[in-house]
Specification:
Order of helices and strands: HHHHHHHHHHHHHHH
Distance between the termini: 30 Å
Number of strands: 0
Number of domains: 2
Shape: globular
Mean pLDDT: 76
Low-confidence stretches: 1-5, 138-150
């Protein structure tokens, strides 16, 4: 980066380009979701494709085909295996609420009351009333296959996404260099050097985050899934896998996984030892993820603290739905880089350096 040759026009050009693309996405809406998912996956997987292509001398088309098939199988596993098991487990927990309340009263609350002289007690009658008042809403949320069966369009949309994303992924991996070259050709020739510097910084931050975070999610999913299964938690591997892939949302992912695990553990109570070991799994996992895995693979290079990460996900999700969630962190990364360059320009400007 060369500050003396830097001006504001490249920032404005990139900002306008992003605004136009985002405007198109908002206008078209859900139609672009599979394309966005495929392009994000292509961006994450491209370095792996490059390494395999150079080191193993395997044709890029063959690598693209294998990766597309793997993604397709993963997408198939979600509605066929993971979601049904999660739904079954949640329904099982709801059915065991009376027994769960009794066990909590007799174990945890009884111990607390005896030790501290308190009188904490869960009243199942009140819980039952609250559940009955919202039973229709709860059932419709948990028993997802009933509304899906009634709305064939949702099923068709899911099926189209499952097929379309790997299909687009195959061609986008094959033609990645052509796509990059096309957009590079749109850059005004007078701004090529400056735009390359800005885009290079964006790529550095974005790749560090997306590729690093994807690796973190995979490692933590395998850790939590294996550990919870070994502890003896029912559907432990699925719950752990969900927890691992939710760690990209700071704190919320691990807390959700912990809450689900606690509910499952108490609904199939096998003693407090299992509960304590399970809590130990989450403590070790949190320390491992926050102290070793994330710093090594991601390094905090995105420039957003956990609060800002959650805020960006909530804002973009609220404004633009699922598309906004997909683009929240990439757009936040672009904003961080553009603000850094804008600050550099501002500090080099006559307005900032003028002495009164």
């Amino acid at each position: 980066m060369q500050p003396q040759n830097f001006n504001l026009k490249p920032i404005i050009s990139i900002l306008l380009f992003v605004a136009i693309i985002f405007g198109i996405i908002i206008f078209i809406g859900k139609i672009l979701v599979p394309f966005i998912i495929a392009l994000i996956l292509t961006y994450i997987l491209n370095p792996i494709v490059e390494k395999i292509n150079k080191k193993c001398k395997i044709n890029r088309t063959v690598i693209s085909l294998v990766m597309s098939i793997l993604i397709f199988l993963m997408f198939i596993a979600i509605p066929i295996y993971i979601i049904p098991n999660m739904v079954t487990e949640i329904q099982s927990i709801i059915g065991k609420i009376p027994d769960l309340v009794t066990r909590i009263n007799k174990t945890i609350l009884a111990t607390i009351n005896q030790k501290y002289g308190t009188h904490f007690f869960l009243n199942f009658a009140n819980l039952r009333t609250q559940l009955l008042n919202n039973v229709t809403n709860i059932y419709s949320r948990i028993n997802i296959f009933s509304p899906l069966a009634k709305n064939s369009m949702i099923l068709i949309e899911i099926a189209v996404y499952i097929i379309l994303v790997p299909f687009i992924l195959f061609y986008s991996i094959c033609d990645w260099h052509t796509i990059v070259k096309f957009f590079d050709g749109l850059i005004p020739r007078s701004h090529v050097k400056a735009v390359h510097a800005i885009v290079g910084d964006i790529d550095h931050l974005l790749s560090a985050y997306l590729r690093g975070q994807f690796s973190v999610m995979l490692i933590m999913a395998l850790y939590y899934g294996t550990a919870l299964q070994l502890v003896g938690i029912t559907s432990g591997f699925i719950i752990g896998f969900f927890t691992g892939f939710a760690v990209f949302i700071p704190y919320l992912g691990i807390l959700t996984g912990l809450a689900i695990s606690l509910a499952v553990a108490f609904s199939n109570f096998q003693g407090m030892n299992q509960i304590f070991i399970m809590l130990g799994v989450f403590v070790v996992g949190h320390v491992l993820e926050g102290g070793f895995v994330t710093p090594y693979l991601v390094g905090g290079k995105i420039g957003l603290n956990p609060v800002m990460t959650i805020l960006s996900l909530m804002i973009f999700g609220k404004l633009f739905g699922f598309v906004g969630v997909l683009l929240a962190l990439p757009l936040s990364t672009i904003a961080v880089v553009l603000l850094k360059y804008a600050k550099l320009y501002y500090k080099k400007s006559h307005y900032y350096n003028e002495v009164s």
